[in-house]
Predict the structure.
Amino acid sequence: MKLVEAESPRREVVLLGPRRVGKTFLIHHTIQALLERGILSDRILYAQIDNPIYVGSSLVEILDSFKQVTGTDWRTKACYIFFDEIQYLKNWEVHLKSLHDAGTKTRFVVSGSANAALGMGSRESGAGRFTDFLLPPLTFAEFLNLRDLGSLVGQDENGWFATDIEELNREFLQYLNFGGYPEVALSTTLQQNAVRFMRSDIIDKVLLRDLPSLYGISDVRELNRLFTMLALNTGNEISLDALASKSAVSKNTLKRYMEYLEAAFLIRPVMRVDQKAGRFQRDRAYKVMLTNPSLRTGLFNFVGEQNPALGSLVETAVFAQRFHRIDEYLHYARWKLGSKDQELDMVVLDPGLRVTEAVEVKYTDRVTKQRREWEPWINFCKENGLSELTVTTRTVDEKTQAGGIAIHFEPTAVHAYRLGSTPSHA
């Protein structure tokens, strides 16, 4: 609402996000709020651009139809225009730029779920004219609060804590499997049919409809196989060479497909740094994370406490709480010490590429007793001027000192809730 109502700087709003996260719902809420503030209904237009009725129409033609129906001239009066799923309108960004440059009092809000078509257009044509706003899948805090379970986590002068850690962990498991999308999160019926719902309404529509139509992909089977393979290995290190070998698809094609999957908000690559937080000149290996762990449930099935995939899914969930933050750069660290590989799960860099945070993601309490396992993480902190390290656990919440570094052992579910509750700029 702040972006929609802002008079200065005057910019049009580009609302981005994956399918089924609530972009259209958010637009409807915005329209309702405008009506409640006294904006006349004939000053508001909502158009769902993926409706066949708009095929071949330009933005100006749609706006001229709006003028004919309402009698309101959007060129001379202050109107609010909402174009939903605008990526299906060819050259939308050029037309929107022209509308903006015309200097009318009308505000435009456009939404879409394919980031490449929107993001590329808004960067190239909309510099200084468009403001992007990302609506991500639900954070764990949003998942609990939507279901009136926010009381499972409290906060006092000492920080965040679980009021019932076992119940909180049960809900965290539900979040891992069903928590990314509001409809599934709020419906036990859909949770029982999560594979069918998420496959048909989210994954298949992106892989079989959105990406092929936007990028001219002819062999959707290759794209589907790649995404399935990446989802199965979320949180694990991969290499393009290995992927090309397993899938029999060329590396250049794989790179392109992965760019498309990232554009559709299905995956996020996480690059590797060394012990001194330096990027490798040639990234031969990196991690690919699902943007929300529940996508895996949509492809395969429910992941329980004893499932070997749980650890990778927990790590994916922790990363997913921060993907929408534009002022953070998320990496993981891997380096050699002698003949052994050392790793730290999450390294957070600021825009100046300085390390601001280090997190090791575990879902076990055993790590609190395994002091030798802490050594590479402590060394990384010392190398990069950090005085604190966070190590997540299943239930233990305590602080200790080791090697001059303050270590905070924090339950993973509390950590995820804290990240999702902390205000951030999308």
